[in-house]
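Trying the structure run again after the queue cleared.
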Amino acid sequence: MIMAYVVRTKSKISLAAASAGRTVLSKKRQELRSLPSWSTLSSSVNSDAAKESSKTISDLPGPISLPIIGAAWTFFAGAKGQPLGKRILAVQEEHANKYGRIFRSRLPGVTIVSLSDPADVAKVLRSESKYPERLQFPVLDYYREKRQKIPGVFFLDGPEWYKHRSILSKRMLRPKEVADYASGFNQIITDFIHRLRTVREPSGSEKENEVCDLDKELFKWSFESVAEMLFDKRFGCLESEVNKEAQTFIKAVGDFLHSAIGVGFLPTWFYKIYETQQFKTFFSSFDTMYEYAELFIERRIHDLEEQQRNQSSNPSKPSERDKAGFFEFLLSSGKLTKDDLLASVIDVLFAGVDTTSNTMQWILYMMAKNPDKQDILRQEVLSVLGDTTLATPTTLTQMPYLKAWVRETLRLYPVLCIIARKPTEDITLNGYLIPRGTQIQFLTHVMGRDEKLFEDAEAFRPERWLRKKDAIPTDTAEAFSSIPFGFGTRMCIGRRIAELELHLLLARIVQQFEISYPPDAENVEPFVRGVTIPDRAVRAKFVDRQ
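Done. Tokens:
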């Protein structure tokens, strides 16, 4: 999920990255890479794939592969001091422009096929088996091997993944179940708004109304929300004295993601010989995440046991609530071992905190940079809620522009710059026969900014997602050109939770503040640190609405 550039082959562990460097193809081959028709999309997969294809994966265009390192050199050639987190996105764009909507990157023992054609993406996703496979992260596997840990729902494959997914989805994907979290999320947002007013720079100061370290403040909001959902308990991240344990966990998540990209560029065997400082940080941060997640779990189990004893000693006393909380539900399912439970809690905390908080940064940045659109957003929110009414899942359905705002933000700044899959059967894509088990990656960042897919692609236009009532998207390019949460059975399991958090917070911020951008602040650009983050601090003024 985090490093789609690193994959494991039968006997080797290799670096897989987008790449550059071959001669320009002829005009005829360029034409073959044009957007395929719907009939091409719906053509048969599996046994019919060979019949409809006259070209093989070896015929695909792509960068030169050097001995030993393959195409990894493209990340460093011509970088001119550009940091790796920005170079990853630049290389993807360069290769898509040079080689077309489907190209190949060869590395020792492995081939990566990169796609930026929505029709091809749709074909891969619609032909998936019961257990879709993602790319692996060998260094993470090495960590689990060394520490004797098992993966959770985000990193598992096969029947074990399905077991975790089927249990978690009952509380994370069903709309009625997700709606139950809104009340708790709203209480957290109330505290967060109060904290923003407390920590922003005072009137008359040089940075009046700016919230310094906005990313860290949003991390606290996101952690408090996800932890409250998991454990049905507040952690105090938004208090004046922030919970030290939560802060330690949050820092560990940041350190883990910051080191993940770098450690993934070397094979695991190298670390068995020599451990770099970045590798040590990677391991120690994951150790800390496990340590504190286990501590949180043990405390929650103790609390539940205490509640059960009190209820047994006084059966006439009503229970605190009729419905079991999220963690209590997992515990009582009987299908997860203690190790399973720890692995899934780690995954939900880790994946739910950083992704949501960074997306909210981009949402606020778009508000600050687009005051005219912000006015439209405010008009919609106030027409539904007024100045003080809290948003709910029901009232959110009456705010299509607000939802379009989040979707448009994710088009420009998808959480992951690629989504990875491994087809379990042969499949023909754009006339090329791709063998089963081939590493395939969808270039979500590239597609989201493609002028052939989106008119005025670099412009922030939430209205592009508004449609007539009850209209259903049938155009493949429209439906699969921006899929920030993935698609199908392997779609992000936290999607509905994340959207609810973002929609509720955005509605409240619009009610309370006008977000403006300091005239002396630099523009912010995307940077890959596992997830797509701002390359510098987002400076935004939170001015109270009059």
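The first helix runs from residue 27 to 32. Worth checking whether this holds up in the mutant runs.
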